[in-house]
């Protein structure tokens, strides 16, 4: 069932809403259900806040602001940091056999596929940074994040969840998210506005980008990934 984690007790049940579930759940966690397709790439229908499995809600989210605005808050099954899901973004969800890729190599492989999809759509040069992030360079030569991701590993499968910024999501981040408790080295202490970027100013649009992502990420399975096609760790 989407969003269920055996043995986990939610510490903030009055604030954290359960994942509504179903084959089109808003967090992309339907990929955990093996009766559902192994891949989903979709634009969120509304605004939601999602924290990582072991994060403290009030450390990551401006809870009172979210409550005042009626924004649902969820906890995902995987790790990673707090994110805003909203129209203008793309959620990338992928289930892979554990034997295809291991741990960080899975994050790297999908991040490289995202880089390829951006290039195929005529987007700016992009690079894999941090822990499975994708970033583009600004005019000052600083890497600015457009994709963040998390991973859940089980005995036989890996479950990848990522969010790609197509339209500008920074105003929502500034309104609802605290400075993250854990930051990649390349962030260098920057705030949301200085660290994150969007792809729409480079001419990218959601429908063709979603199609390209589906094609490139959909190829990531099977014997072609059993070798050393991707590094064990993404660059810092």
Strand order of the largest sheet: 1-5-9-8-7-6
Rounded to an integer in angstroms, the radius of gyration calculated over CA atoms is 17 Å
Number of domains: 1
Q: Percent range for helical residues?
A: 10-25%
CATH superfamily: Bira Bifunctional Protein, Domain 2
**Count of runs of 4 or more consecutive helical residues:** 6
Shape: globular
At CATH level 2, the architecture is 2-Layer Sandwich
> What is the end-to-end distance?
35 Å
The major pleated sheet works out as: 6 strands, antiparallel
Low-confidence stretches: 223-233
Tell me the CATH topology.
Answer: BirA Bifunctional Protein, domain 2
Task: Name the beta content range.
Answer: 15-25%
Task: Describe the structure in your own words.
The chain has 236 residues and is an alpha+beta fold. The chain has one domain: BirA Bifunctional Protein, domain 2, CATH 3.30.930. It has six helices and nine strands. Strands 1-5-9-8-7-6 form a six-stranded antiparallel β-sheet, covered by helices on one side. It has a three-stranded mixed β-sheet with strand order 3-2-4, covered by helices on one side. Helix 3 (104-120) crosses helix 6 (206-218).
């Amino acid at each position: 069932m989407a969003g269920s984690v055996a043995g986990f007790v939610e510490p903030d049940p009055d604030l954290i809403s359960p994942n509504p579930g179903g084959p089109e759940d808003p967090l992309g966690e339907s990929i955990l259900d093996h009766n559902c397709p192994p891949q989903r790439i979709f634009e969120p229908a509304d605004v939601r806040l999602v924290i990582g499995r072991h994060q403290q809600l009030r450390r990551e989210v401006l809870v009172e602001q979210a409550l005042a605005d009626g924004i649902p808050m969820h906890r995902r099954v995987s790790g990673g940091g707090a994110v805003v899901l909203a129209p203008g973004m793309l959620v990338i969800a992928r289930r892979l056999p554990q034997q295809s890729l291991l741990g960080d190599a899975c994050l790297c492989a999908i991040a490289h596929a995202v880089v390829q999809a951006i290039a195929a759509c005529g987007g700016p040069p992009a690079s894999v940074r941090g822990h499975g992030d994708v970033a583009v360079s600004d005019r000052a030569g600083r890497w600015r994040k457009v994709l963040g991701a998390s991973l859940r590993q089980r005995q036989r499968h890996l479950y990848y969840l990522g969010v790609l910024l197509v339209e500008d999501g920074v105003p929502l981040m500034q309104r609802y998210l605290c400075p993250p408790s854990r930051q990649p080295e390349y962030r260098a202490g920057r705030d949301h506005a200085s660290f994150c970027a969007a792809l729409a100013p480079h001419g990218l649009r959601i429908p063709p980008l979603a199609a390209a992502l589906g094609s490139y990420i959909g190829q990531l399975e099977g014997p072609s990934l059993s070798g050393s096609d991707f590094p064990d760790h993404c660059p810092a």
